[in-house]
Write a structure and sequence with these properties.
Number of strands: 21
Subcellular location: Membrane
Helix content: under 10%
CATH class of the largest domain: Mainly Beta
GO molecular function: electron transfer activity; metal ion binding
Membrane topology: Single-pass type I membrane protein
Largest sheet: 4 strands, mixed
Strand order of the largest sheet: 17-1-21-19
Keywords: Copper, Disulfide bond, Electron transport, Glycoprotein, Membrane, Metal-binding, Signal, Transmembrane, Transmembrane helix, Transport
Oligomer: single chain
Main location: membrane
Radius of gyration: 27 Å
CATH topology of the largest domain: Immunoglobulin-like
Structural class: mainly beta
Length: 358
């Protein structure tokens, strides 16, 4: 009798945000095209490179032929291997440079380290790109606008009609008045305004008398992030003109640092597997639109489904034709908010066991 199949669900929930980060993180493939191998001068490769906190090292090699250990200076000089459980062994090991200082890496297979298969680098603090700005350090004293006038900031009010024909200038102030806890104010971009996407809660203004100084010319967007208030029309869009006597900059849009999408190997060197805490892995990571998730696993052992919140909670499997099954599945994060990813894998059970979600 054919064995029944039991289905296990491994779940990954990601919070994805819009907007660029200003850290200029880079990825370095160790050895470039040569990868991680014997007979290569890794110190010559590293010479002149500017490694910074937030950058990533990627060690590429044929799995089983080599590995990667993070060691200290003594371990580097004397080729001392840490315990085997500390080895990175996937053949595509990603190491994020989380702190400044000197970092050492060796191959722990046979005598590879003794034959020169090791790397030492110096990591500098993170590098930031300062947005260009033509805004002066002080602003002219401007007008104060109580948003909504006597109505204040509330549901059931047409804020675009209120803003129409008003001339907002750099130095003016918007004051949002409302009962504390009933509403809040978020500054968002155009996409967040149109789709009512709340930024992180830490960015909310919540005092009930929130004052925003208009420091730059250009388009500005504000929403209430409580409940469905934004969807019900509680949002404001204005255009800010230069202060009287100022020349407008070449572009009125606020300067935005360039954001380079990143690639996240799900589970890092563990890959997409059973008995791994993917929520712990995802915690604290800043996933953004344009980033990529790469699910690496042994073909036939696992797969990947993109699901909604209900299916995520109850481990409901979509149709089989929606499964990603290549063993190196790449998903581009194309929309903000939460994304649910679901792995289904099968394990044989003794005859008579019923197939059911776990």
């Amino acid at each position: 009798m054919a064995s029944a199949l039991r289905v296990f669900g491994i779940l990954l929930l990601l919070g994805i945000t819009l907007g660029p980060s200003i850290t200029l993180a880079k990825e370095f493939v160790v050895g470039d095209e040569a990868g991680w191998k014997l007979g290569f001068d890794y110190q010559a490769w590293a010479k002149g490179k500017d490694f910074r906190v937030g950058d990533k090292l990627i060690f590429k090699y044929r799995a089983g032929s080599h590995n990667v250990y993070k060691v200290d200076g003594t371990g580097f000089q004397q080729c001392i291997r840490p315990s085997a459980k500390e080895a990175l062994t996937t053949g595509y090991d990603v190491v994020e440079l989380a702190t400044p200082g000197r970092k050492w890496y060796i191959c722990g297979v046979a005598k590879h380290c003794e034959y020169g298969m090791k790397l030492v680098i110096d990591v500098k603090p993170a590098k930031y790109e300062a947005p260009r700005s033509s805004v002066p350090s002080t602003y002219p004293a401007g007008r104060e606008y109580i948003v909504g006038d006597g109505a204040g900031w509330r549901l059931g009010f047409d804020y675009q009609a209120w803003a129409k024909n008003k001339v907002f200038r750099v130095g003016d102030r918007l004051v949002f008045r409302y009962p504390v806890h009933a509403h809040n104010v978020f500054r968002v971009d155009q996409y967040g305004f149109q789709n009512c996407i709340n930024p992180p809660a830490s960015e909310a203004l919540t005092t009930g008398s929130d004052t925003i100084v208009l420091t730059r010319p250009g388009r500005k967007w504000y929403i209430c992030g409580v409940g469905q208030h934004c969807q019900n029309g509680m949002k404001l869009f204005i255009v800010v003109f230069p202060a009287q006597g100022q020349n407008p900059p070449s572009s009125w849009a606020p300067a935005v640092p360039t954001y380079k999408p990143r690639e996240f190997i799900v589970g890092d060197y563990a890959g997409w597997t059973l008995n791994f805490d993917y929520q712990a892995w995802a915690k604290g990571k800043d996933f953004r639109v344009g980033d990529k998730l790469v699910f690496r696993y042994r073909v036939g052992a696992h797969n990947v489904f993109k699901v909604d919140g209900n299916a995520f909670q109850y481990c409901t499997k979509p149709p089989a034709n929606q499964a990603l099954t290549t063993g190196n599945d790449t998903i581009v994060l194309s929309t903000p908010r939460n994304q649910m990813v679901h792995l289904w894998c099968r394990q044989s059970l003794p005859p008579g066991h019923e197939t059911r979600p776990h």
